[in-house]
Amino acid sequence: MPLPHRKDSPPLLEARGLTRRDHTTGAALLGDISLRLDRGDRVALIGPTGSGKTLLLRALAGLDPLDGGEVAFRGTLVPPSQMPAFRRQVIYLHQHPALFDGTVADNLARPFQLDSHAGRQLDTAWLRQALRGYGREDTFLERSVTRLSGGERQVVALLRAVQLQPAVLLLDEPTASIDEAAGRYVESLVAEWANADPERAWLWVTHDLSQAARVSGHVWRMERGQLTQSA
Amino acid sequence: MSGEWSGVNLPSLPELRHWPLRIATYPHWSPLIAAMRCEIRLDPASRFALQSRPPSQTSPLRVCPRVHCSGTSFPDSHASMSHSALPAARSTPIHALGGMVVALVSLVGDLTLFGLQTIGGLTRRLPRGYVLWPVLHKIGVESIAVVLVTGGFVGMVIAVQTYDQFAQMNMENQLGSVINVTLFKELGPVLAALMLAGRVGSSMAAELGTMKVTEQIDALTALGADPIGYLVAPRLIACVLMVPLLTVLADVAGMCSGWWFSCEVLGIDHHFYWHHSLAYVAPWDIGSGLSKSLFFGIAIATIACHRGFNCSAGAEGVGQAATEAFVCSFVAILVIDFLLGTFLMELYHMLWGVVSMR
User: Fold this and answer.
1) Which residues of B touch A92 (CB under 8 A)?
2) What digits encode the pLDDT tens for the residues B269-284?
């Protein structure tokens, strides 16, 4: 299929010929998808349920094995040995947030235990400010994740990703389980992260067309494992 | 070519012949198909899908639940096929045994690759202290009580079981030798490892399995972690360090309990008990027991983490992973014990010139 190219500048994230099949049925889950995400791109990805949006995001983040294709970051192919470093820059946010056992603070601090984020520290001041924007007091940090609502879990997972200052965010329906006000907060949080560096880009999966119009300059559509580009 | 097919109305061979055919398998059976000649053998009553990919079509997939044919080459004219003309399904005990052997070899290979991947990660970077210490505490410190109890009772049980035989030969004063040699060489390491396989191995498999099922491992990966290096490597190091140390504790507990029971309850003289113990227990015996425990630790950690990482979905999957971790570790410990025991005995005989076991 044709590449959804828009610019001639070197892409921030580029995928070529991503192919994945269901090895049980042989059905094409991702059908030879090529795309490029340029610096500063804000792209929404829409499409019916089961069309392969999540699989595409996971493939871009190198989380799932593929039957074909390759992903390049800043023009360089990402070898398996460099995947952890690549994922430090390109973070996939799960549709159903996976939080670790412990408190909110534990979850937010956990990435800094990883080798890929070694030497960096939790910015508590920024976190407290961000939580106040969400209408939560500082004590929220000490709350066990088992006591969080679905929306709160979603926000914590987003904060955990955004604080790492990646170059690309692959957002899989980040506002799916939260109310409209919280959804707007999430949008502003992501926008704030992107505005801090003009290079940063995101690919935002949503079923809400009005949200797609708000958060993106381009809308891509997926259908049956195929990617198409719309206005 | 789509549709529900049965043995009597399969699509005609000429059309099938030019398709790359593949059988989509469902669990617990392995259909065989020789696509080139369209010789198809199917397990009766099994659901399967014939995937056809002619040049003009991309995915006309059909599930065919009603095929009752097996082990035959379809004739060009499918109209001549009949249910009764087809041979019976190939599902004999030999097939089942073959399947088990293949599964076992696959598991061993997979475990080996998993272990090598972990060791490879360790050669590149050791786990950080704040990741390693909690695991060391959980595996080591929290297992002390159970290991002491195990070792303590093992020492007394050996005394109880051997006293009568030794007394019949008026050799009860030598009870210390058999208790301590058995304890240090064999029962201490093995029983401590088995206990740890149950306590630590199952726990690790359940913990990692839960992380897998709840996508925590996936989330760690998405955040830039190497899950093997972050989750498996610390557990491997902890087991390699802690299982031998816990074995020492089990040995000491068994030695003390055996001595107490033999001398205080069975009335054996303290002097002779220790005299014979020191005469028969060589440093080699202690070393061989501890070297075994090192390998037991590797086996427990590798198997438990592997099972956790390959946990199937749901609560049932986590429980199954924990059970499999214990059972596989149990078997592995006994196999390693036998192999290492044989090797160490041969090595001892080779080094000190004693007659070989052969």
Assistant:
1) 222
2) 889 889 988 888 888 8
